[in-house]
């Protein structure tokens, strides 16, 4: 049986701002359909414009955070998962905290004083979408935050750690601290499944932490991925239907 805090993820949190837009919006910001790019200066005003739309949807995103949220949803055990990363002190950061906490994840964000919360614009036109990511505060995580007693307790409590390769360019010292602790206490190994679907990883981890056979872990991953691809962003129903 999975216990509280058994799985800890660390990564780059991005608030997905998803909205249906029109061709004029795409032209205004020079966006091509079915594209995934990093934001340039010309794109920066679009996030506030999308936030002002009535049909906007906020989803706590970023690859690792997506996987942790899906694992939490599959486990259905309050606080079974924890997550750390860097956000800004702004309204998008508050939205991220609310979204992740409502999902049942125990989030301990580092809040950067200068950089705004990382965002990813999800521009939807006729079922097709384009992604424009502005990493911003997600790039600012400091190992000093990890070393704080209330945060290091999450490392000590966890038996499984998930850190995707994206985080290597942000805080390699934090990764080494967790890796050294895991090695010294016989806790599995760090996993980098860059390229695997976030939902598949979350479903897989939800069974791995319960020490289920690998074939069951894979089935859970496939189940979660199948659910997520039929919905907007990395979102899911209230309860999973996986046996």
TrEMBL record:
Top enzyme class: transferase
Top-level taxon of the source organism: Eukaryota
EC number: 2.7.1.20
One Gene Ontology cellular component annotation held by this UniProt entry: cytosol
Similarity comment: family membership: Belongs to the carbohydrate kinase PfkB family.
Cofactor(s) required for function per UniProt: Mg(2+)
Purpose: ATP dependent phosphorylation of adenosine and other related nucleoside analogs to monophosphate derivatives.
SUPFAM superfamilies, A to Z: Ribokinase-like
GO molecular function, one term: adenosine kinase activity
Organism whose genome encodes this protein: Salix viminalis (Common osier)
GO BP field: AMP salvage; purine nucleobase metabolic process; purine ribonucleoside salvage
Keywords associated with the record: ATP-binding, Kinase, Magnesium, Nucleotide-binding, Purine salvage, Transferase
Residue intervals of the Carbohydrate kinase PfkB domain: 27-187
Substrates-to-products reaction catalysed: adenosine + ATP = AMP + ADP + H(+)
Pathways involved: Purine metabolism; AMP biosynthesis via salvage pathway; AMP from adenosine: step 1/1
InterPro entries xref list: Adenokinase (IPR001805), Carboh/pur_kinase_PfkB_CS (IPR002173), PfkB_dom (IPR011611), Ribokinase-like (IPR029056)
Protein name according to UniProt: Adenosine kinase
């Amino acid at each position: 049986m999975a216990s509280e805090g058994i799985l800890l993820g660390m990564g780059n949190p991005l608030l997905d701002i998803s909205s249906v837009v029109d061709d004029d919006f795409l032209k205004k910001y020079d966006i091509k359909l079915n594209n995934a790019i990093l934001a340039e200066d010309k794109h920066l005003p679009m996030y506030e414009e999308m936030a002002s739309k009535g049909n906007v949807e906020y989803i706590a995103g970023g690859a690792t955070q997506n996987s942790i949220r899906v694992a939490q949803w599959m486990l259905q055990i309050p606080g079974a998962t924890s997550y750390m990363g860097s956000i800004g002190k702004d309204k998008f950061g508050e939205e991220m905290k609310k979204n992740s906490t409502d999902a049942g994840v125990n989030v301990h964000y580092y809040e950067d004083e200068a950089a705004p919360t990382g965002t990813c614009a999800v521009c939807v036109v006729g079922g097709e979408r384009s992604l424009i990511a502005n990493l911003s505060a997600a790039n600012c995580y400091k190992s000093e935050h990890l070393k704080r007693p209330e945060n290091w307790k999450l490392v000590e409590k966890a038996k499984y750690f998930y850190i995707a390769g994206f985080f290597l360019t942000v805080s390699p010292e934090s990764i080494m601290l967790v890796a050294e602790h895991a090695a010294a206490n016989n806790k599995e190994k760090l996993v980098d499944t860059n390229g695997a679907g976030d939902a598949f990883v979350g479903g897989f981890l939800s069974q791995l932490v319960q020490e289920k056979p690998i074939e069951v872990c894979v089935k859970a991953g496939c189940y979660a991925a199948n659910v997520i691809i039929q919905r907007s962003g990395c979102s899911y129903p209230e309860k999973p239907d996986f046996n």
